[in-house]
């Protein structure tokens, strides 16, 4: 059910972040090891987002499997950033396989990814959707649970800092739609904020960089598994894991 990652650290090429480690996101697109309920491969598209020099998040997404897109090795090797998010998708049954349904979703300095499913979507989110301005609803990027959560999160980001916004939205969706699988990941160029609700999540930290990923990207001992129903704030030199 989708896999995602976030990186904050010294400038690296986007391609290296996505493909450069033994169990990279590219490997996880065709050979994930911890998919839990549902899905065997993540072949319904992928996306990458990175902080540009002006601080805004820029993204590249494609509805094709990551391993078929030459842009990963031809183009994304030429783009470097200190903050990168990546996602590979296994579409939830009934949701469309289109480019715009792929995470990361970006707006200003933020990039967002969702690994999981909102139970009983869209009815379960109807009351929450009332908070979303009509113009945002009418321009929803894709008719999917993840795009709806992103629209809700954008509202929260106008009112709160990123950590509080993500936590508020995760809690609200979790109570509106019990039994949802809500692994959210938000990056703002300097820090990564993530939830683990049902799906696997790990975090890596050393003196130089911090990474959050559905599955550890390599076999270094610095990876720590995040317990279910946790909220993670990760910045260089400081990882904080709390109960959601
Ligand atoms: N439900 C989301 C979608 O279909 C995410 C899918 C997933 O995590 N497998 O886009």
UniProtKB/TrEMBL annotation:
SUPFAM superfamilies from the UniProt entry: N-terminal nucleophile aminohydrolases (Ntn hydrolases)
Gene3D superfamilies: Glutamine Phosphoribosylpyrophosphate, subunit 1, domain 1 (3.60.20.10)
Any one Gene Ontology BP term: ergothioneine biosynthetic process
Segments forming a coiled coil: none
Top-level taxon of the source organism: Bacteria
EC number: 3.5.1.118
GO MF terms held by the record: hydrolase activity, acting on carbon-nitrogen (but not peptide) bonds, in linear amides
UniProt keyword list: Glutamine amidotransferase, Hydrolase
Glutamine amidotransferase type-2 domain residues: 2-244
The keyword rRNA-binding is assigned to this record: no
Reactions listed under catalytic activity: gamma-L-glutamyl-hercynylcysteine S-oxide + H2O = S-(hercyn-2-yl)-L-cysteine S-oxide + L-glutamate
Pathway: Amino-acid biosynthesis; ergothioneine biosynthesis
Enzyme class: hydrolase
Protein purpose: Catalyzes the hydrolysis of the gamma-glutamyl amide bond of hercynyl-gamma-L-glutamyl-L-cysteine sulfoxide to produce hercynylcysteine sulfoxide, a step in the biosynthesis pathway of ergothioneine.
Protein name in the entry: Gamma-glutamyl-hercynylcysteine sulfoxide hydrolase
Native organism: Rhodococcoides trifolii
Gene designation per UniProt: egtC
């Amino acid at each position: 059910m989708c896999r995602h990652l976030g990186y904050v650290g010294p400038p690296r090429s986007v391609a290296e972040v996505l493909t450069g480690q033994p169990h990279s996101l590219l490997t996880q697109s065709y050979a994930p090891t911890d998919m839990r309920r549902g899905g065997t491969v993540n072949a319904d598209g992928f996306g990458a987002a990175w902080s540009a020099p002006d601080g805004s998040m820029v993204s590249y997404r494609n509805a094709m499997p990551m391993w078929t897109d030459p842009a990963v090795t031809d183009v994304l090797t030429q783009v470097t950033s200190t903050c990168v998010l990546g996602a590979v998708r296994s579409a939830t049954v009934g949701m469309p396989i289109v480019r715009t349904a792929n995470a990361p979703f970006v707006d200003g300095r933020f990039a967002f990814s969702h690994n999981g499913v909102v139970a009983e979507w869209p009815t379960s989110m109807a009351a929450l959707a009332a908070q979303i301005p009509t113009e945002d609803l009418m321009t929803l990027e894709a008719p999917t649970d993840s795009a709806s959560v992103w629209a809700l999160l954008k509202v929260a980001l106008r009112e709160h800092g990123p950590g509080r916004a993500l936590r508020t939205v995760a809690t609200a969706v979790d109570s509106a739609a019990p039994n949802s699988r809500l692994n959210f990941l938000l990056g703002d160029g300097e820090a990564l904020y993530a939830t683990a609700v049902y799906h696997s999540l790990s975090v890596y930290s050393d003196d130089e960089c911090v990474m959050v990923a559905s599955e550890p990207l390599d076999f270094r001992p610095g990876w720590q598994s995040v317990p279910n129903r946790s909220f993670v704030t990760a910045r260089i030199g400081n990882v904080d894991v709390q109960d959601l």
